[in-house]
Specification:
single chain; seven-stranded mixed beta sheet; four-stranded antiparallel beta sheet; about 30% strand; about 325 residues; 11 strands; binds L-homoserine
Length: about 325
């Protein structure tokens, strides 16, 4: 039996313009790696933290990678402990699902060293407990795609004392590429959630519901025209755009260069676009980077295929 395992969980884009706190997809960009080792002493201990982020909470109940493990060890009344090392590939406060990736990778790695494997539903639940340390609430729009891979719609249902996730994988339209651009800026999820009004206008609700319905139908029908018409966030993006310097120029540039839709990646500041075909995606990428540069921001970017978006996996 394995007593040590390393898992990788990919970056992800949450909200996807029309599905605030629900929709998300994984991206073959950066990822987080977590190594979990069984120890004879019960408890969860944080070992090395390396990579693009090293300043993380050292209290295992407050760390996104380990909070789920603390709860898991308690629920299963484990007689052994875990030593956890984290290698962060996803920048902090980037809107690329870094907290979710750490939480997911830790649970997937821990699962590989348990005597009895967890169900998928339990892995999602414990990952969510970890992720909530960063975002302050339960929403699975990063955790679900980072765990499962591809495009997902995930709803959090609390059945008992633990969050339960209902996950549906959606088909990605072939030939669709994601452009993900990360400006060199940190935006905390809690800050970006803090600017949101608690209520929305009925008219906006109807428009956003129509866009979400059209978006999902377009995925199943492989209908690029319907996708493009539905790809608009009338609720969240207008409230957050001011947090991202140059956002409107970045979006206009992406649309002019031929993208199907462009919006804020998760809570931002990264911005993503969906594009038909790799060549056009590369042109959109260039346009978006140029627009961020006009706002005085350097950025890092990735172009990846949506149809083979990665899932979390044990890598060692
Ligand atoms: N749906 C979340 C938000 C994603 O936009 O705040 C970040 O956790």
């Amino acid at each position: 039996m394995k007593t040590r395992a390393t898992a990788m969980a990919p970056a992800s884009v949450a909200n996807v313009a029309v599905g605030f706190d629900l929709l998300g997809f994984s991206v073959a960009a950066a990822g987080d790696e977590v190594t979990v080792e069984r120890t004879s002493k019960p408890g969860v201990e944080i070992g090395d933290v390396t990579g693009v982020v090293t300043q993380v909470p050292k209290d295992s109940a407050k760390n996104t990678a380990t909070a789920g493990l603390v709860r898991l060890a308690h629920d299963l009344d484990l007689k052994f402990g875990f030593r956890v090392s984290i290698k962060k590939g996803i920048p902090l406060g980037s809107g690329m699902g870094g907290s979710a990736a750490s939480a997911v990778a830790a649970i997937v790695a821990a699962n590989a060293v348990l005597d009895k494997p967890l169900t998928e539903a339990d892995m999602l639940s414990y990952s969510l407990i970890g992720e909530a340390q960063a975002s302050g609430s339960y929403h699975a729009d990063n955790v679900a795609p980072s765990f499962k891979g591809g495009l997902t719609i995930a709803r959090v249902r609390s059945i008992d004392d633990r969050p339960r996730v209902e996950l549906v994988s959606l088909p990605a339209i072939p030939e669709t590429y994601t452009v993900l651009v990360h400006p060199q800026l940190i935006l905390e999820t809690k800050t970006a959630r803090g600017v949101l009004k608690a209520d929305i206008h009925l008219k906006s609700h109807v428009e956003q519901a129509a866009n979400l319905a059209g978006f999902i139908a377009a995925c199943y029908r492989q209908d690029f025209d319907l996708l493009k018409r539905s790809f608009a966030d009338v609720v969240i993006e207008p409230q957050r755009a001011h947090l991202i310097p140059g956002f409107h120029d970045v979006k206009d540039s992406a649309m002019k260069a031929g993208s199907l839709g462009c919006s804020i990646s998760g809570a931002g500041p990264s911005v993503f676009a969906w594009v038909r075909g790799r060549e056009l995606a590369e042109a959109v990428e260039k346009a978006m980077i140029g627009a961020f540069a006009r706002a005085g921001l350097e950025s890092k970017s990735w172009v990846s295929s949506l149809t083979d978006a990665p899932a979390a996996k044990v890598i060692a």
